[in-house]
Design brief:
The complex is a heterodimer of chains A (about 450) and B (about 250).
Chain A lengths: L7 H10 L1 H23 L4 H17 L1 H14 L3 E5 L2 H14 L4 E4 L3 H5 L2 H7 L3 E4 L2 H8 L16 H12 L8 H18 L2 E4 L3 E3 L4 E6 L3 H7 L3 E7 L3 E2 L2 H15 L7 E5 L7 E7 L3 H6 L14 H5 L1 H6 L10 H11 L16 H5 L6 H14 L5 H15 L1 H17 L2 H4 L20 H12 L1
Parallel strand pairs in A: 1-10, 2-3, 2-4, 4-7, 5-8, 7-10
Antiparallel strand pairs in A: 5-6, 6-9
Helix pairs in contact in A: 2-12, 3-12, 9-10, 16-18, 19-20
Chain B lengths: L1 E4 L3 H6 L1 H13 L3 E3 L9 H6 L2 H15 L4 E4 L2 H10 L1 H4 L5 H6 L1 E3 H8 L12 E5 L2 H6 L15 H6 L6 E2 L15 H4 L1 H17 L4 E4 L2 H13 L6 E3 H5 L9
Helix pairs in contact in B: 12-13
Chain lengths: ~450, ~250
């Protein structure tokens, strides 16, 4: 596929045009946002927790080199093998070589956005390995050959009837059965064999603790635990920003993560891994893939504080009505719109504009990333690099010239009001008028405010 | 007290009565209002597109016009946020800049924090749907934000509660964005309109007779949608409500 840039408005318009489906999607995510609100309201010190979490992450990123080495030393002492990958390619090669060296054929994977970012599945499949995503949502999108549309709720864009059809095609459930409990049971039975047959398990990592060398994986389905306790090999893949300094810091994040993500007090499973189990292997792959570059940016380094809870997606009124796929990025939504242009500004230049700057994301973020301000900063970076359309830059230059000259502003305003008053409707609502496609323009008054104010002043004196 | 009145560019041209209501309200409270006629716009459309070099001259212009006023009052949270939170990029370190920023205030904020208004003799016997405009809400904290916990002050609602006969309707989503977003309204037309329709529908379902807000930009977008849908529900700026203007049903 040779795409020069991704056009968010175009994909978003397609999604929004099906208003029923867009409303259904909006409602599903708003429900999660409300659950989050209820959980947050039960914690009197919620805002202090957010502040503290942001400070811990900032501290970690400032001292990242030392903290990473401390983690490597402690994890190695526990018997884990730590690998370092500069980019996605290196990450995939490391994982593949571990699997190859151990003659692995079948892999049970639990949720990992990092392996999505590195496109690990196709890499391994091309080399003849059998990879199964065992998180229910991830498995659904894997069967449908789709990318996840949300980092926490990967199949949130798919209706239960469609899941029923997918399962009917792939695992032979009765056609037309869309009962969620039945379908989950069917998935459970099918995946159970995949766990038993697996030669290795791959997981993501939610937190890695420098002080102990341990890693923490949070899931609701227990699939990471099955996938790492049945096969003898566990490969844990993580971005270098997942570190936290001390075990005591973890408590701050476990209180925030699930409440922000899904509105649960805590994830069903919070599993700690301290070295390999007896007779097994634990590999931890630490991946940079552009993170060092973001860390060095004076404007965007705070985006690395992200703990991937997805709360900014659930609250984003644009995301809810445009769907995760409209962002064409591993991490969609508000935080993804900061991270993706950092990877490739040319490809992702429309994303920082897929936002009304309402600021709700910033206020729900459990680590207090100023998301909407960073999106605004991205816009000026993109405009300066001339990566936004010339039409946009030219029209802004024209508007600026008008507004700099008061007399030109007054004439333009007069002309606009007169035109709106006297032009026929079909001429005003022409095909080039994007505002007027589904909205009327404001009623044009005869006089401007400044004219009315001057008149009032004259009458008074 | 004498204040410099800053009227958003589109309010000057398309919603003159919002400006007039602001003037009348301030004068009613004993404030002398000066409108420096050289003013045009805060520059937000350019800034939010990322065209900072096209914004700079407007920030300079605003600062030159308004720097000597004791207070600058503006009936828009969005334009005030532009000055207070984003002008630092253009004017940092200039003499009097910080004071000018701190003294540039949104109307409700000025009435609450400076004038300490605790009563307004006015009647508005209608059921009002109060739309929380995002920049006033989350950049200036004019009202309670549904995302946040802890003590929050409701400056807008507190002022409106002083109005005799007013009733508030209960919205399903009390502070969701209307989808205007400046150039977003045109660049992301599909999502913008859907967001606007959803906001209007929430007010209609709640039984609002009037939709009111601190920012005319949100209301211009919602009014555009209501008119196209042949709805008769009018939109009104807070200043118009506080002056007891009669709702002009959309024809």
């Amino acid at each position: 596929m040779n795409v020069t840039h991704i056009d968010h408005p175009q994909l978003a318009n397609v999604f929004a045009r099906n208003a029923d489906r867009a409303h259904w999607h909006d409602g599903a995510l708003w429900f999660v946002r409300q659950k989050r609100d209820r959980q947050a309201s039960l914690i009197p010190e919620w805002e202090e927790l957010r502040e503290l979490a942001g400070q811990i992450k900032t501290h970690t990123l400032v001292n990242l080199a030392d903290i990473l080495v401390q983690f490597e030393n402690n994890a190695t002492a526990l018997g884990a093998k730590v690998h370092w990958a500069a980019d996605a390619k290196e990450h995939n090669e490391i994982v593949y070589s571990i699997l190859k060296d151990n003659n692995v054929q079948r892999v049970a994977k639990s949720k990992s956005m990092l392996t999505e970012e590195c496109h690990l599945n196709p890499f391994l499949e091309e080399r003849g390995l059998n990879v199964v995503d065992t998180d229910l949502g991830e498995w659904i999108v894997q069967l449908r050959h789709e990318p996840p549309s949300h980092i926490v709720l990967p199949a949130i864009h798919i209706k239960k009837e469609e899941v029923g059809e997918t399962f009917h095609q792939h695992i032979g459930t009765p056609k037309g059965n869309a009962d969620p409990i039945f379908l989950t049971g069917a998935a459970r039975n099918h995946l159970r064999h995949k766990f038993v047959d697996a030669d290795a398990g791959i997981t993501g990592v939610n937190f890695a603790i420098a002080e102990t060398g341990g890693i923490v994986v949070c899931t609701n389905e227990g699939n990471a635990d099955l996938g790492t306790s049945l096969p003898p090999i566990h490969i844990a893949c993580m971005g270098i920003e997942k570190l936290i300094p001390r075990l005591v810091d973890l408590s701050i994040f476990t209180r925030l993560l699930a409440r922000s993500a899904t509105g649960q007090p805590i994830t069903t499973y919070t599993s700690h891994f301290h070295g390999p189990r007896p007779g097994g292997q634990l590999h931890i792959v630490l991946v940079d893939n552009g993170r060092t570059q973001i860390r060095e940016s004076p404007d965007f380094h705070r985006s690395l504080n992200c703990i991937r809870c997805g709360a900014c997606m659930n609250t984003c009124p644009v995301f809810r009505r445009s769907g995760g796929h409209s962002y064409s990025a591993t991490v969609p939504g508000p935080i993804g719109s900061i991270l993706s242009p950092a990877q490739d500004p040319k490809l992702h230049h429309s994303l920082p504009y897929a936002c009304t700057l309402c600021g709700s994301c910033t206020d729900v973020c459990p680590v207090k990333i100023d998301i909407h301000h960073q999106l605004l900063t991205w816009r000026s970076e993109l405009a300066h690099a001339k990566l936004i359309p010339l039409s946009k830059r030219a029209s802004m230059r024209m508007v600026s010239v008008i507004l700099r000259n008061t007399w030109l502003f007054k004439i333009s305003g007069w002309f606009a009001r007169k035109s709106l008053r006297w032009m026929p409707r079909f001429a005003i609502y022409n095909p080039l008028n994007a505002w007027g496609k589904s909205r009327d323009l404001p009623p044009a008054p005869k006089d401007s405010f400044r004219a009315q104010f001057a008149k009032r002043k004259r009458n008074k004196s | 007290m004498k204040v410099g009145l800053f009227i958003p560019c589109y309010v000057d041209q398309f919603y003159p009565d919002v400006g007039m209501a602001t003037v009348e309200l301030l004068e009613k409270l004993g404030v002398e209002v000066d409108f420096p006629t050289e003013q045009t716009c805060c520059g937000q459309p350019m800034a939010n597109t990322g065209c900072t070099e096209q914004t700079r001259p407007l920030a300079e212009k605003f600062f030159r016009i308004f720097r000597d006023y004791e207070y600058v009052v503006c009936p828009s949270g969005s334009c005030v946020s532009m000055v207070r939170n984003h002008y630092v990029e253009y004017l940092n370190g200039r003499k009097d800049f910080e004071q000018t920023c701190a003294r540039t205030m949104e109307l409700c904020e000025f009435l609450t924090d400076v004038m300490k208004v605790d009563s307004i003799a006015v009647k508005f016997p209608y059921r009002v749907g109060l739309h929380a405009s995002c920049h006033g809400l989350r950049e200036l904290r004019l009202d309670k934000c549904s995302e946040r916990r802890g003590v929050q002050i409701s400056k807008v609602r507190r002022l409106l509660e002083m109005v005799e006969g007013i009733e508030f309707v209960k919205l399903q989503r009390e502070d969701e964005c209307c989808g205007f977003g400046g150039t977003f309204a045109v660049a992301e037309e599909g999502v913008s309109v859907l967001m606007g329709r959803d906001r209007c529908e929430d007010h209609i379902q709640a039984g609002a007779q009037v939709i009111a807000a601190t920012d005319m930009s949100c209301l211009m977008h919602m009014e555009g949608i209501l008119r196209r849908q042949k709805s008769t529900i009018p939109v009104m700026h807070i200043a118009q409500v506080l002056m007891g203007r009669q709702p002009q049903m959309i024809r």
